[in-house]
Amino acid sequence: MSIASDLIRGHTDTIILAHLIEKDSYGYEINRTIQEKTGNVFEMKEATLYTAFRRLEQAGCITSYWGDENTGARRRYYSITAEGRKTYKNNKAEWETTKELIDRLI
Amino acid sequence: MSIASDLIRGHTDTIILAHLIEKDSYGYEINRTIQEKTGNVFEMKEATLYTAFRRLEQAGCITSYWGDENTGARRRYYSITAEGRKTYKNNKAEWETTKELIDRLI
DNA sequence: ACAATATACCTCGCCTGTCAATGTATATTA
DNA sequence: TAATATACATTGACAGGCGAGGTATATTGT
Question: How far apart are CA A29 and CA A73, in angstroms?
């Protein structure tokens, strides 16, 4: 089972920000964490993930830097900014409100 | 306050079907009911509503017929079909699952 | 030795749902 | 008689998700 695109739409950014609040991280790791947290039920499509990184960086919610691994594939790490925390907080609050409204409507 | 488009996206059809399970209804009434149920916090945009009717009819989830009002503006009534009930049930189940996953992720 | 798999990144272009803008028509109310 | 409410509908722009495709390195199995 997978989540319908239209149900996940709009949560992608918030999910990423939630992960980055815990610690700096990179795309591959974020995606694997998501899979673990959902018992392998859900994974973000790579295209969706990297599109979101561009969008979030553009919006000033995250910054990025290359990791200094001397083995394995290179990693681009992301950090959440103050702006990103603010956005996260707003999105989360909006989710709580929306959740209740939808429950009332369906 | 209004619900972000991206959070409501994917629920439009389910919300309409939920209303039509109660009784046959028409666009304007459905929209007013939604507003009432949410304490005037949320309303569907007309374009979204009517697009959804086309989509649902196309998918065999609803059928329509003109009302026989002899006063006021004409109304196009919609009925939910067996297929529509099935879709509603699936969508609702998917919502319950998704809700939990999102809560776990954000 | 070499193929397969895992790790890790990225972009292009299509598809779909939302919605602003715009239009039509009738009935009621100020 | 102007404004508002009821009631329908379409068009085109926009944005996010994602399939398909691509690059590169390290490890594991045969």
Answer: 13
Q: How many domains does chain B have?
A: 1
Partner-chain residue, chosen from B18, B41, B101, that has the shortest CB–CB distance to A106: B18
Give me B38's structure tokens. 């949410």
pLDDT higher than 90, residue B6: no
Summary mean pLDDT of chain A: 93
Instruction: Assign 3-class secondary structure to chain A.
Output: CCCCHHHHCCCHHHHHHHHHHHCCEEHHHHHHHHHHHCCCCCCCCHHHHHHHHHHHHHCCCEEEEECCCCCCCCCEEEEECHHHHHHHHHHHHHHHHHHHHHHHHC
A38 touches strand C (CB under 7 A): no
B8-36 per-position pLDDT tens digit: 899 999 999 999 999 999 999 999 999 99
Q: Is the pLDDT of residue A89 over 80?
A: yes
Q: How many CB atoms lie within 10 A of CB B44?
A: 20
Residues 6+ apart with CB under 8 A from B11: A7, A102, A105, A106, B95
Domain housing A36: 5-105
Residue to substitute from A2, A3, A7, interface B, most B β-carbons within 10 A: A7
Domain with residue A88: its CATH number is 1.10.10.10
- Six-digit token string for B13: 């059809």
Residue type, B51: T
Closest partner residue to A9 (CB to CB) among B9, B92, B99 is B9
